[in-house]
Design brief:
Elements lengths: L1 E6 L4 H13 L3 E7 L6 H9 L3 E5 L5 H14 L6 E3 L8 H13 L3 E6 L8 H18 L11 E3 L4 H6 L6 H10 L5 E6 L14 H35 L4 H24 L9 H29 L4 H24 L4 H13 L6
Parallel strand pairs: 1-2, 1-4, 2-3, 5-7
Antiparallel strand pairs: 4-6, 5-6
Helix pairs in contact: 1-4, 5-8, 7-8, 8-9, 8-11, 9-10, 10-11
């Protein structure tokens, strides 16, 4: 097992962490100096003195690039064990790192996440930021991950090639891993860990720039559905203005918007690399979903409009809100899914084991 620690301008907490890990196990430790500079040479020499491997970037390239450098090194040195990634600021306890390592040995094809529950003296900003990211991630992917921003993660050795290819150079890289994992057929196992917070004035997370990079990939997942919804909504209003029946208006609007949505989802949202999905596989499933959603759309609008006496405009808004998540989750997990057969087996394992949560 390899412990991978990306570090930029670390302090003595990195040395304390390494001391405790060394006292608890004999895992190999790889530390990536992400361009910390001459002032921090002493820290990294001390790290080497503990028998750790230190990989050095001449300039700061970001956490994502530092992790990729570490993954590439583990891959090239022929290690067949898994990799546990931990932060250098002392917020991950050695016993929690060992819990992640143990789970990696038990599972293959799973990303193991150390999930904090933010109890105790944790700043409101940290609680709020994780809550928002968790909610948006769930809406975008249909998966429930309690701590999407955790830096304590474990990966089995078969993931190394993929981890080196996931886009992102800074903090957005770890979110991209969560977003791309399902397309690769990987599932998640979540392990409860302690919440350790230090008043860290040296944090290198750039609030606005890095937050934007974290959320932009999520918006990519949601943008297609949002634009399609706007198109569907606009066409419905136009057809109603032209005095078409409600049923014909709903059918016509949904037919146009769904054709647009399918094209964008197939070629952009769910595409793997530069390759879009085979339409022979996805097209029948997608338009079967369209028919189901269309029927629900009509019935819900009709119920809200006639039974609750709410105008069509507001009935449409409420209906789209209700059906948005259903539509997206089905597309993500059924219509546009890589390695569907393997993933189905993994989900069965998750359901049968009370210790694993997706």
């Amino acid at each position: 097992m390899t412990i991978l620690i990306p570090a930029y301008e670390p302090d003595t907490r990195l040395l304390t962490l390494i001391e405790k890990i060394k006292a608890a196990c004999n895992f190999k430790i790889v530390v990536v100096d992400d361009g910390s500079g001459e002032a921090y040479r002493g820290i990294f020499k001390a790290v080497q003195g503990y028998g750790c491997t230190v990989l050095t970037h001449e300039t700061n390239q970001g956490k994502g690039r530092a992790l990729k450098t570490g993954f590439q090194y583990v891959k090239e040195t022929g290690k067949s064990e898994g990799v546990v990634c931990a932060d250098s600021d002392g917020q991950h306890l050695p016993q929690d790192i060992l819990k992640i390592a143990q789970r990696i040995e038990e599972l293959k094809g799973y990303i193991v996440l150390g999930c904090r529950h933010f109890t105790g003296n944790v700043p409101l900003r940290s609680r709020f930021g994780n809550s928002v990211t968790r909610m948006v991630y769930t809406l975008a992917t249909g998966h429930r991950i309690y701590d999407t921003q955790t830096g304590l993660r474990g990966y089995s050795s078969d993931m190394l090639d993929w981890l080196c290819e996931v886009p992102g150079e800074r903090f957005e890289y770890e979110m991209n891993i969560l977003l791309d994992a399902d397309k690769e057929g990987y599932s998640f196992s979540q392990v409860d860990i302690n919440t350790v917070y230090h008043e860290n004035h040296s944090s290198h997370f750039r609030t606005f720039v890095d937050s934007a990079k974290v959320y932009i990939p999520l918006l990519k997942f949601s943008a297609s559905s949002l634009v399609s919804g706007i198109l569907d909504f606009s066409l419905l209003m136009i057809f109603q203005y032209l005095q078409l029946s409600l049923l014909l208006s709903v059918i016509s609007a949904r037919a146009c918007s769904s054709a647009f949505n399918y094209s964008v989802n197939r070629s952009f949202v769910f595409a793997k690399g530069n390759q879009s999905y085979n339409s022979q596989n996805s097209l029948p499933k997608y338009f079967s979903l369209v028919l189901i959603i269309m029927a629900l759309n009509y019935e819900l609008i009709r119920f809200i409009n006639l039974r609750l006496a709410i105008p069509v405009f507001y009935a449409k808004v409420l209906t789209e809100f209700i059906l948005f998540l259903l539509s997206y989750v089905v597309q993500k997990t059924f219509v546009f899914k890589h390695k569907q057969w393997q993933s189905s087996i993994k989900r069965c394992v998750l359901l049968s084991s009370p210790t694993l949560r997706e």
